[in-house]
Design goal:
single chain, 223 residues, alpha/beta, 7-stranded parallel beta sheet, two-stranded parallel sheet, globular, Aldlse_KDPG_KHG, carbohydrate metabolism, Aldolase_TIM, EC 4.1.3.16
Length: 223
């Protein structure tokens, strides 16, 4: 069962403005990355379903985070079908994210009041997702479907939209400022926040510092 309510999840997404996206088959690496992000001010974290036994790792991370990072809201990403969504919700996912919009996933999440943020690449997809109860829609791959200008133009006719973008997001002032000024609710960021060499060298402080820096740019762009 989800530890945090839908309102708490959405509020944290909006207030921090950033959702790190990460997967590693080594649970200790995952714990260190999550802890580093937590110490850097991150409060919403997406663990992606991208490897064998990923759900088993996630279940352990939820129990661990409840004690070590009590304010961290953990969710599951790369969820493309209803059975997988149900599995992760049973393991304690506070939100579900997908690269695509699958209308069969929405009722599974809605029944438990767990936010579902599907990947959308057009106004029609976003509108259909919203009609299915998706309060936060993810534009993906954001860089390929039009970048910040796409978000800005979508918010003309669909001005009530809460948009998260993933893909082509970087922890730089110029990039984050452009997305925030376009009107996104939050950004999702993976490899640019967790460079392979940094993770391999176990330089967790570098990740913490990068999170602090990125969150600072987001806050500055919103001011």
């Amino acid at each position: 069962m989800a530890k945090f309510s839908k309102i708490q999840v959405m509020t944290a997404m909006k207030e921090t403005g950033m959702v790190p996206v990460f997967f590693n088959k080594d649970i200790d690496v995952c714990k260190n990355v999550i802890k580093a992000c937590y110490e850097g001010g991150v409060r919403v974290f997406e663990f992606t379903n991208r490897g064998d036994f990923a759900h088993e790792i996630f279940g352990e991370l939820v129990k661990w985070a409840d004690k070590e990072c009590p304010e961290m809201i953990l969710g599951a990403g790369t969820v493309i079908d209803a059975p997988t969504a149900a599995l992760y919700i049973q393991l304690g996912a506070n939100f579900i994210v997908g690269p695509n919009f699958n209308p069969e996933v929405a009722p599974v999440c809605n029944r438990r009041l767990v936010p579902y943020s599907p990947g959308c690449g057009s106004v029609s997809e976003m509108s259909n997702a919203q009609a299915a109860g998706c309060d936060v829609t993810k534009v993906f791959p954001a860089g390929n479907v039009g970048g910040p200008s796409f978000v800005k133009n979508v918010l003309g006719p669909l001005r009530w939209s809460n948009i998260m973008v993933t893909g082509a997001v970087e922890p730089t002032e110029a990039n984050l400022t452009e997305w925030i000024k376009a009107g996104v609710m939050c950004v999702g960021m993976g490899s640019k926040l967790f460079p392979g060499d940094v993770v391999k060298s176990q330089n967790w402080k570098a990740i913490t510092d990068k999170c602090v820096e990125a969150l600072g740019y987001i806050a500055k762009a919103r001011a």
